[in-house]
Amino acid sequence: MKFALVSCLVLGLVFTTKSQTTPLPVGSEAIVRGGLLHFFSKIKENKKVKVAYLGGSITRADKGWRDQTFEWIQKQYPSAHFEQIMAAIGGTGSDFGAHRLHRHVLQYQPDLVFVEFAVNDNSKPTNEIKEAMEGIVRQIWKQNSKIDICFVYTFSKPQLEFYQAGNFPASASAMEQVADYYQIPSICMALPAVKLITEGKMLLQGKPKEQPDKMIFSEDGVHPFSETGQKVYAETVGRYLKQWETTTTSQKHKLKKAMMPHNLENAKLLSLDKINKSKGWKRVDTSAIGRGFASMFAPIYASADSSDFLQFSFKGTSVGLVDIIGPSSGQVVVWIDQDPPRYINRFDEYCTYNRLSYTLINGLKAGTHKVTMKVSPNQLDKATILQKRNNKISDPALYEKQFLYIGAILEK
Question: Considering the entire predicted model, what is its pTM?
């Protein structure tokens, strides 16, 4: 059994991949494969067309490649009516994307889904990436086989050397295997940006105010500026969409035998309104106000009382929770069946502000499980934890409590 903890940091996630890279040669910037037949058919018929963007912070960014490509589509095809489905949450990977896919994408009945997780999946084992990405594909086509899908690959600083050497990094390599198996088109938005950086025409990192005469991709090596890196990403997508309008094949989407036996096609995200809970839990939706995820995870419940509980049963091999962690969060204790309790910290060295996070307990025996979650009575040494990043407790009152703020339950 293993735990998977992912926190949605404001600055995103940057990892190294050298220890687990399974490089594949980089061919072209894009591969049309089965194409986007249904998407273009609806456009030609002047119907309402819904475009969904599932991904992390690079996709979440306002005025970034998401908004820019959507505006391009609207201008390119003025006779059709388009609607955007924004389903990106910073710092999250494809596993979380698979769990929240129905709530944030499929219930709105999209016609095209862009999937962007190549940066945030960068530290994960390739098998887990393939399981999650295949789960996303299979969920989409189980609902409607006419929904088109396009994988898009962004990059972060640790991945630069792989692209420069002519290889995909581990995450994109794994995703390409899924794309090839299901004949899903893919666009490597990273390659044109890497080319500009390699040729010295654009700097990977910098501050525009300090170098006004330079074209700078990003400040942190991850999140592109809207006027430069994001623009390159958007122009790359637009270029290939225009080409694919006339080269898309008539192949129909088919759900053949699963490539990965343990893929996440059955992953779910359950609202706490559907979970049995003690009376002490209080709604605290205001804790998410002003955050990019605020509208995606109401209601949010909180308690600092170790006698309060959440209790439910599920059938599967994985369970977890979506929560908000920050200065006043603490530790959760989880009982599964007759197993010993699991104590999971919901406070880390980044907890000087509130952010969305999620944790998964994987590797359970297949079958029905009974789960109980409570606020742990253990008091965390928050000052020592914060010291890992040289952070200090500025206001003791903010850190005194040890709450658990839960927005949803994850199951698979």
Answer: 0.89
